[in-house]
Amino acid sequence: TQAKYLHSGVEIYHGGQVERQEALQVETALAKALQRQEFQVYYQPLIDAHSGRAVKIEALLRWKNPTLGMRSPAEFIPILERSGGIVPVGQWVLNEACRAAATHPDLRVAVNLSARQFSQGDLPGTVRQALQASGLPPHRLDLEITESLMMQSPERAATVMGRLKETGARVILDDFGTGYSSLSYLARFPLDGLKIDRSFVNALSETSGQAIIRAIVQLGSTLGLEVVAEGVETPEQHALLKQLGVPLLQGYLFGRPQPQLPDTPG
Length: 266
Ligand code: C2E
Ligand code: CA
Ligand code: CA
Ligand code: CA
Prior knowledge:
By secondary structure, the protein is of the alpha/beta class. It has eleven helices and nine strands. Bound molecules: ligand C2E and calcium ion (3 copies). The site of one calcium ion has 4 residues, from loops. Residues 23-266 form the EAL domain.
């Protein structure tokens, strides 16, 4: 049994070593990815529930490294947040997204923001510059933030948010309902909209799931907030969400993230 124990110990040791090496490889490659032009912005449509037309797009970051391949944002965004690399990368995404949206006559564009971008550098200045350089009308830019971003430093977040709104861009609370106090954030921060988290759309087959969405829609309309549902994958979900009065829908049913804008004229 001792030999077996030792053997398994060695296995575990090797496993950990390989994982650490891979993580280090990812980190090293990520630090050079922007300069090496390995990032790309993909766009996913947000659909008007009634007309079925794309009215907005969400910019989603993609990273493809020649040796490491395509990596998921769920893996590399947290690393960029830790290293601070998300500040220049986020600025690049903002510029790309505004430039792309400005080529279209009326599409709006949503860009995800990280806590680091709030706490470091001049985010409102960066936004203003991206708008000016692209010529995109400010009301066509949405900035998506999360509750965890606001929680880290609520006072700073409120100040930066106020200055962001002075640029004319709008601020949307993403993943609504997943944190612990989403409701209190709606009252405390100058938000323009909320995006109902995918987990609630998944629960639509249960009556309680429908009741939650109905309540969020009502809340949104009382507070004058734009309401979006994300993660719509089936025609049944589409029909229910439309019936529940959710005006904007996003999900694989309508289109996956892709490198081109939806129905670009010409
Ligand atoms: P998110 O902001 O909640 O973005 C929505 C995610 O859900 C995207 O994953 C999108 O591809 C995926 N999705 C869209 N429709 C469906 C659907 O019908 N079903 C399912 N299962 N998934 C769907 P993605 O692109 O992998 O991004 C993951 C997360 O990474 C984003 O979640 C966001 O938090 C972060 N992220 C992506 N791009 C950026 C960026 O430029 N900056 C920052 N700070 N974060 C980003
Ligand atoms: Ca988002
Ligand atoms: Ca989301
Ligand atoms: Ca999310």
